[in-house]
């Protein structure tokens, strides 16, 4: 459902991955010690103020990015054919990121705090969550673990009146924020497990385009707006096969391509009933954003912590144990 580099934080912050009609500006609201509003109000640069609203609501309440897309096989030379052909649409990709802006009390340090839960679904019926997947390369069926990352945080950003995140791009009737991120994580050094990756090193691409209408931008450029700004985004990821598919990257010349779009929702209540029911039943933690900063997870480190029990099992042992 992240892999951050310090030099990329300012550009990537509006990305992660990676939304509804907001209310009017607040009139002299009362703020708690972790509320972002007083820090947000200091920022002079319009584009930075808007990009902070891409990250979260200035009023400090939760907002969501609803995520919807598909996952494909990318196999140069069709190297896995006929078992797994290039361009195969493997899964739907349905879920959300729930987030909020958080001020470290007593400081000018601002964070974006989030959790993300995204399910792998039937590509013909995106509202039907898949619980398992048959790997056609080895003929075994494995549990299909959703993206369930707690936390996915950015920051801290030291907010001053002169703080800047860089200019937005003018694209006809919209303004765009672009973040192209090449994550690299030495999972072998971090966890002791190589996950079947060459040298135990995870590499990927995460490419985000966030769009906000100029009318919406003008409406929310002043004061401390309530609610979520209307934002849409496009996201593409190229990465190794996810851990629960039990395909070793070092043994194949193929990867996954994720392509999805996202849009803001003002609260968790605005999700579709099927998605809310899925989360309430099995993942209730993901109804709300975190309360304070913590170490961020990726799909791989989350799998290590929750499926491998922090190294009690190796990835290879998990695949051997769970495949049937």
UniProtKB/TrEMBL annotation:
Q: Which organism is it from?
A: Actinomadura citrea
- What is the top-level taxon of the source organism? Bacteria
Pfam families assigned: DUF1838 (PF08894)
This protein's record includes keyword Signal: yes
**In the record, which residues are listed under signal peptide?**
1-26
Q: Which UniProt keywords apply?
A: Signal
| Protein name as annotated | DUF1838 domain-containing protein
